[in-house]
Amino acid sequence: MPELPEVETIKRGLEKSVVGKTISDFDCDWKKMINKPLTEYRKVIKGLKIEGMRRRAKMLIIDLQKDWHLLVHLKMTGQLVYASKIKCVVGGHRIAEGYQCLPNKFTHATITFSDNSRLFFNDIRKFGWMRLYTGLEVQKELENMKLGPEPLASEFTLEYLHTVMKKRPNNKIKQFLMDSKVVVGVGNIYSDEVCFYAKVKPMRKVKSLKENEIKLIYKAIRTILEASIKAQGTTFSDFRNADGEAGGYSAKLKAYGRYGEPCKVCKSEIKRWKMGGRSSSYCPKCQK
Question: I need a labelling partner for 21 at 20 to 30 A (CA). Which of 60, 63, 65, 239 fits?
Fold first, then answer.
């Protein structure tokens, strides 16, 4: 699943292509992807111009005229492809030939613009969605999700981190970092990297953290996510940025996905720890 830096990269890439365009048609062949009848989508958004694109947590918000909005989540295998006669912009999960011969068998929603360019929503597993809301409905939907602050926003402070840690003392550190009600966007990849940066093992309990470790965790969240956004995300087998290129942060990873490899700092073998359906990589020597 794309994490915060990847979704931010997609937003920044796609908004260059779609903001200012007028929607002439909408189509969807998967009812679970949308929250209203297809006829209502067409009635509402045809003729509306895209005024902007935002991100909240791992979701994209496409702002339309007349206070209508499309809330988009790519989930595990979603991909957005903007295609015109002169360019093709791809963002999200890498799908073999996913941006060729569009629409294809993975295409489940299509926005057509007045200049005949189109925005395709491809999804292999069909978990992603594109929901149509008014401004008030978007606000209520986001409130119902009880999302924590954005990690790079001013409200995410060291004091805030202390407060939420006191409420979750028995959480494992990795579990705590990945909880979107604590802070959004720190998923499986970046929680491993934050733990490595802060030199703490992911399976430790929050209440075991010392003050200097908490400060390092706070600094790591902001530093690592900022660096990943600058590098346009992390790539393994699935993520592509909005230009269809691989994200550049993977070369900088110290822990995630490096199970069995030597630590880049001390050369000890990177170990793996499983938490539910997730696995975490860490260095048994660098992390305490």
Answer: 239
